[in-house]
Task: structure prediction
Amino acid sequence: MIRINCPFCGERDHTEFSYGGDASIVYPELDASMEEWHDAIFMRENIRGMQSETWHHANGCRMWLVVERDTMTHEIQSVRPAHKGNAAVLSTTDTGGEQ
Amino acid sequence: MSAKRLPQGGRIDRDQRIRFTWDGSSMTGYAGDTLASALMANGETVLGRSFKYHRPRGIMSAGVEESGAIVTVGQGRRRDPNVKATMQELYPGLAASGQNAWPSVRFDLGAVNGLFGRFFSAGFYYKTFMGLPPMEWGKGTGLWMQYEKIIRRAAGMGVASREADPDVYDHVHGYCDVLVVGSGPAGLSAALTAAKAGLDVLLVEQDCELGGDYLNQADEASGKKRKDLIAKLEKAGARMMTRTTAFGLYDYGTAGLLERVTDHIASPDKHLPRHRFWTVRAKQTIVATGALERQVAFGNNDRPGVMNVAAGRSYLNRYGILPGQDIVVATNNDSAYATAAELASAGATVSLLDARATIPESMMSLVGNSGVNLHTRSAPLNVRGSHGVNGLDFAVAGQGGWSAQGSESCDLVLVSGGWSPVVHLLSHRGIRPVWNVEQACFVGPDEVNEPIYMAGSAAAVWNIEDCLTSGESAATKAIKALGGKARQKKAPAPGGWESPIEPLYEVTVSGRQLKSFVDPQHDVTTEDVRLAHREGFVSVEHLKRYTTLGMATDGGKVGNIIGLALMADAQGKEIPEVGTTTFRPPYTPVSIGALKGRNVDGHFRPLRRTPMHVWNLDHGATMTMAGLWHRPWYFARKGEGISEAYVRETETTRRTVGLCDVTSLGKIAIQGPDATEFLNRIYTNPFAKLPIGKARYGIMLRDDGIVMDDGTTWRLSETDYFMTTTTAHAGKVMVFLEELLQTRWQDLRVHVTSVSEQWAGSAVAGPKSREVLEACVEDPSVMSNDAFPFMGVIETTLKGGIPCRIARISFSGEMAFEAYVPSDYASALMDLLWAAAEPLDGCLYGLEALGAMRIEKGHVTGAELDGRVTIDDAGLGKMASPAKSFIGSAMRNRPELMREDRPRLVGIKPKDASQTFNAGSILCAEGKVSGLGEGWITAVTHSPAMGHWIGLGFISSGYEAWEGKTVIAADPVRKGNIEVEIISPHMYDPDGERMYG
Amino acid sequence: MSRYSAWAVFKNGFSGQKNWDRQWRDPEPKKEYDVVIVGAGLHGLATAYYLAKNHGIKNIAVLEKGWLGGGNAGRNTTIVRSNYMMPGNRYFYEHSLKLWEELSHELNYNVMFSQRHHVSLFHSPAARDAAARRYNTMRLTDTDGELWDLDTLKKEIPHLNYNNARFPIIGAAVQRRAGSARHDAVAWGYARGADRQGVDIIQNCEVTGVTREDGKVTALETSRGRIGAKKVGFAVAGNTSRLWQMAGLGNLPIESHKLQAFVSEPLKPLLDHVVVYGVGGAHFYISQSDKGGMVFGGDLDWYKSYAQRGNLPVVQDVAECATAIMPCLGRVRLLRHWSGVMDMSMDGSAFICKTPIDNLYLNGGWNYGGFKASPGSGWYFADLIANDRPDPVIEHFDLGRFKRGVIIDERGAGPDPKLHG
Result:
């Protein structure tokens, strides 16, 4: 069981979350070219080691999170909200989960 | 073997006699017995048959590593094959029987296999059974499959019941600071140290009693120490579980535990589960799982009456059984001496063969004082006897190896080839053990990158005093890791014997052919290992797979090290150079029932019901499965089946009015200043100018330009929208919208909330739908055609003050509305609607009629939108705005997706109107009914409006290309071929006059 | 090298099994090869075998960082079938199945392919119709396939959950020629077959670098030294992206996930068929091995991973799926579970294709369907390498299909690798 420390809810089993994908991908503007979209949708670095990835706390607060996790060991280095506004709010208040 | 129960001694309760049966014969044992000890006391020796040669097998151990006494327990629906008799506690009425034998384990005709043993070497089956012997003539798989039938019947072990398992199992989730696995001296002391430091300790023990090796000791002091430790643990508040195996270690300190709750009870309380599967998240884990005694490979070392030494001690001291009268104890290390002495003191004649040349004085006097006959530089060579032991040939060590040296009659051979610490749980974490040369065993590495600590003999610490210290030391590490204060105790180094072990894996003399077993359960012999080497299967994993060494139900606990040693010898290497196999979880087999827990039958997956469920049932609904939902399929009236019912429902709805529960549609509130912009990006069609009080049908694509979902979105205010999705994709769409807003488009000020469960809804469809709603709303004027035009949205109040939102949208092609109320009002809504609709000769309709009407109209659903279809394929290309960009707009223009000859949505009708045809048929050009075809049929229905069967499907280039041509709907798996015509998918009221009316 | 036969087994029985040859040599790597295949798994070994057999190329090496057949070859649930529907997949998998049918004879190695029927349950009329489309397509392309109604199914497999299932079973789509095989034997059989044609299988030889000169690969740096190569083929499931990046080629439409597999204690025959189903978000497949173990599996662990270790939630889920369909399995005990790394592609379909480097070829992205594909994969990959052009059958198994918009996604799950299987 991977345990993910949700910044909003605290540490929970990974089964509460669903894995999104590579968080380093920058999705292009809607009017960008097919080539740019092709690379964003289909092409992956597929890192073996520490990677930045998205998880959705689907059975919790419904927030999308950016998790730095080692894909070899499953060890998690950091968890933060994907949305910068939420991250900013968390950093100025004390409503986060237990660290 | 001529075992007998001693008049006293042991941990059995002699006041509680227990009757049980073995292969139909009634026998007695005592409370505290295992099935193995009870059978032994009853003089039973042959308890099983081996996998391949069907050799007779008896008790080989007193624990989880048992490889011989594997039996079937129970009968009928509660039949449990492959039970290790050494782990089965005795209970009144227990019915056990032999397995993998016919007619019985004592007289097994399958033993004829043994005669062919010379041919049945490792992997021989890869070399034959392909075709006709002797040269494997023939083609294909036919002959192999004939051989295979015989092989399958011969293989396998026990027979499983084919009936549903009647027992109940539970799941438990647990948490603790420190999980201690194993309750021997090391485990007890570790748990006590941690508990005294105020930590939440969970101590688990696979045995029915705490104590581990304490339970096998004869001396009073050990018994007292054990009791004392347990009492202190109780006082310190540690949680202790017996009959509980930590079967696997997983990520983040998660352990899987199997608690066997009722396997030892004759008539368990029916409220008790049979097993509990625990998922425990431990901050720290101490592995005090002990060590297993190894066998040595020598001739016929699998005969009933060959056991490990520790088992001999256990049967003597724990079960009060003298397991033999004339006993040979063979060892290469100190651990066997105490047992030899105890057996002699209990009245057996004991010879002790020690492979070593020099023995310390103290050990010599220990056995000497008990009358044990000690032979140094000696080892067992070959067991005599077929169904038991009646003698042993010896070997002595000389220059350049072993030589035969006479024989002795005996009835029991106890063997210690050294000890293997149980490092399985570490192995589950991908941590490789390292070879300790001095102790001749694998131990955990010094540094482990996880909070897991090995203690006691699991860390190759061999004496009890050191094990206590080892446990304490492990616990202090755990305490410190959790931020507590503790003085670090130095962990004792591996070892603890007076004189070193001398590695001994095989005893063989030149010129003598011996059948020496490495993995007795799978009949893997030393020759098999050498054959594997000769054939190039030199890596450990190749050896394991080619010979099946270590793949039996003991999971290689007995044979792996010997196999490695033999392979190392064959290669001229050291054991660590050959490697170690990776132990996979579970440590011991786990019932699939426990893993599934309560999630069985109707509870396998959640069942979703709409708040109108009961109302629907009360009104005659037959339900069907739609994903996880139960939805009304049809509402049969008297004498109707599904075919009559849906045709009537369709006809009635088109003639007057019908009501249909549409609550399962996904509903999402989309709110915020940028809600309009957001919708405009995710839908293909324009949403920027949707007026307040209007709904619009929209299509969403995936990023890759393929259709994801469709539905209507209602504008309730400047900043507030109500989106509906399909039932199937409700969850997926919601997640996607959240992802877009929280990751890609963080600047958009929009909030999305799933309100699927907040609103219950009904479609009201048909020429009289307005009439029905007029009768239901408090202010009928809101329903007028002017006030409420096609695609209009109102928020109003139903009679009785029920808040309601209604849109005039149509899936049926009739004038129709969808009315939603807060879920608590679901039944009230239906009561109101039905009270108005019934007098108008209206009906309730289900999914079948809904499907029929949408097919008539050419509306697409999941059957058409199969994740490969583009918006153009579905005939909805005009809904893709050329004036804006949206999700999927870049990718939908990929060349293959824009081809004119792609399959397009079409309508289908039979050439002969009296004929029916099937969804799933392949559309082929006339005269070319082969290959991948031109298209396929997605949905069919009888159309009451058209008076014949119709269908929807896809065909290359669309219906214009096929007008007037005969097309074959090929359905070889069912009906065969039907001639059909391809028509426009808009088969009913193509101009939509009824909808606007 | 001696031929395997009942006669050979008989003879060796009288000579103490002493006269069997090594099944493959343990050669030192040569300085250079005409073709170097990286990865001695099923796909790599089959490729080497067919390169030698079909195309007469003899100077071939297969490099393996561990031991041959040690990756997913020995970790899968051994199901062989060809019930694929999409253009591109349809003919490829059928060709592969045809190779399976003769494989034991072809290799003179009993791979124990048993055509015990692949029985795919369905639980709703819509699912039946979707299966009908697939199996009709098979029938029209000269492949066997049929639908069983409930009565037939009950007669064939009486102990499924017909009475209390959460999702009622209403029938099954069946491919009789499909079945299961002995996975390790396939690797060993191809290895022996390739070896006897002179292919050097070099184990414990990890590729650490790809040397390029003038836009071509000239050599591979390995843990056993530099090995020159005129042509190079990658067939390294679980390591494809890493090797690709080693060759300086950037990203691939692949994400690596882990899939667990399970085996029970050995039992006397309990299930003669391969049974699979997927409903309500569940996905499950089971068969019984010749040794008697129930071999089964389900979905991925749902997150990207290179760890060959699974976690408990999927163990639990798979156990639920097992008992949901075969309620007697509750008392059967799980003996072992393990996991393998699957290179999941973006559309659930594989790659056998040329690459941006002229003499480098790619075989990968088999999701968790690579076992059944291995003979066909080797066949067509060898053809591609030998002739430097794809056979029309594998025309769409290229990396460019995403740009062209070719849809050969059997599940229609879209570009989310974890949703394919």
